[in-house]
Amino acid sequence: MVPRHSMREAFGRHPIARETVVAFAGVWAFALWIDLVTDAVFRYVPTGAVDASGGPHAELALSALLTSGFLIAGMVAFAAGFARLRDLGPAVGLPTRQTLVAGCWATATGVALVGVVQLVATLTGGSLAPLAGVAYAPNARGGLAALVTVLGLFVGVPAYVIPAHLVVQRSGQRTGRPLVAVGLTVLVVGVVGPTGLLNVRPLRMTAATGLLVLAIALPVVAAETVDRDWVTALALLPLAVFLAGLVFERTASVEGATSVAYHGAELAAVAVGAYAYERSNSLLPSALAYTAFVVATRAVVFVADAGVPV
């Protein structure tokens, strides 16, 4: 037997386990915080009082921008509090030429990934509409579709890049291993989904996070208290089962080649953004990759639903 230590000391000697716990706990806290902010915004912000003199589209845009502004402020406040709590340095750097180059190839990659998915859909007779969660009526007006997409991105982009990079990836960076930071980002976002944090079920997410923390803590404690490799390996079993369950839940709705290609492309876009953030310390490339992926997907669905061959 080896000497017993406090949990803080034990996790201190296992930085990957420690930062994985922090990353998932941070995403859990972010999701609950945004749920509270969203409830407060819709309860107390008088969105119905906006000036509708510009027409229904203007009313829609103003109401969405008003509520989104409060949500974004809440996200930024959370990121600042998280950085202060963990004593992290500056989250992002000033844009450089390298950042702009990374942003260009990230945008091109996002569009190319959608192109690959659409090619698979064409060859297999699939459709992107149910995967993207959007549908358009025949002869729908492009202006309104574009407005809804832009308004969705206005809150969707920060709701993705802030938890993915400022919470998860910055936690992973504290391991001192860039590939771990990128991999952890892809893992967490892959489990939750790039847009999943705006549609959480608080009780379920709290239970899942608690179980994950316990599943990670078990092998750490075993490694620190029992001088037997097989015991540590056995203690990893609950974590393996838990992660397998998460993967199964995430892929249970994956049916057909188009769905596989879409979810794979989604993870690839996350990986591109994480790698770009690791290299440039800028959120711009990741935001552009996400935006390009969403806009290209919506455009393909819109053209297909309008009856125009893709």
Report on this model:
The longest helix is centred in the middle third of the chain and has 32 residues, at 142-173. The chain is mostly helical. It is globular, with a radius of gyration of 21 Å. The protein contains 12 helices and no strands. The protein has helices at 7-12, 15-44, 56-85, 97-124, 129-132, 142-173, 178-192, 202-225, 229-235, 237-251, 256-280, 284-305. The chain has one domain. 77% of the residues lie in helices and 0% in strands.
Keywords:
globular, 77% helix, mainly alpha, 310 residues
Give the helices and strands, then pairings.
Elements: H1 7-12, H2 15-44, H3 56-85, H4 97-124, H5 129-132, H6 142-173, H7 178-192, H8 202-225, H9 229-235, H10 237-251, H11 256-280, H12 284-305
Helix pairs in contact: 2-3, 2-6, 2-8, 3-6, 4-11, 4-12, 6-7, 6-12, 7-11, 8-9, 8-10, 11-12
Q: Short summary of the structure?
A:
The chain is mainly α and 310 residues long.
Number of helices: 12
Helix/strand order: HHHHHHHHHHHH
- The whole-number mean of residue pLDDT values reads 77
Largest sheet: none
Poorly predicted residue ranges: none
The value of Rg in angstroms is 21 Å
Instruction: Compute the number of strand runs.
Output: 0
Cα end-to-end separation: 66 Å
Strand portion, in percent?
Answer: under 5%
Helicity range of the residues?
over 70%
Q: What number of structural domains do the residues give? A: 1
- Structural class designation: mainly alpha
Shape: globular
